[in-house]
Amino acid sequence: MLKNKVTELLKIEHPIIQAPMAGGVTTSELVSAVSNAGGLGMIGAGYMTPLQLQEQISEIKKLTFHSFGVNLFVPTDFHTKEDEVKLANQLLNPIREKLNIPPKEHIEIPSFTDTVKKFDE
After folding, report:
1. pLDDT tens per residue, range 77-114
2. What does the pLDDT read at residue 1?
3. H or E stretch including 68?
4. How far is CA 38 from CA 1, 9, 15, 20, 58, in A?
5. Domain assignment of residue 107, yes or no
């Protein structure tokens, strides 16, 4: 067992932090299992709505009394170029085809204002 400032601050037994994988890969069961084993389970909440995050936190609290973390995407101002987005989308379409995913004709880029609004929620 390795004790250091990180394990003390996070109230964990082992200096292991489970990767917070956004997009639905990180389940409540995974987060709680890591925390129950002495590491720090992490919710990948970058794409979650406030309600989804609240529900997952409630689920995890039923599965563990140990510490766990929440990882969010903190918005910073961004600028996109329409031609670069179109090119990236075109390059991804052959990969989508190989994976039997329908091609996307148009990619909608969220505005910075909308991104900040969702984060504030």
Report:
1. 888 888 999 999 999 999 999 999 999 888 888 888 88
2. 67
3. strand 68-71
4. 10, 13, 8, 16, 20
5. yes
Q: What is the pLDDT of residues 45-86, one digit of tens each?
A: 988 889 999 999 999 999 999 999 999 888 888 888 889 999
Distance CA 9, CA 26 (A): 23
What predicted TM-score, i.e. pTM, was given to this entire model? 0.71
**Joined tokens for residue 52:** 């989804």
Cβ neighbors of 35 (< 8 A, separation 6 or more) are: 12, 41, 60, 64, 66, 67, 68
Residue 90 lies in a domain: yes
Instruction: Report how many domains make up the chain.
Output: 2
Count of beta carbons in the 10 Å neighbourhood of residue 37: 15
Range(s) of the domain holding residue 55: 5-71
In a domain, 59, yes or no: yes
54 and 87 share one domain: no
SS3 114: helix
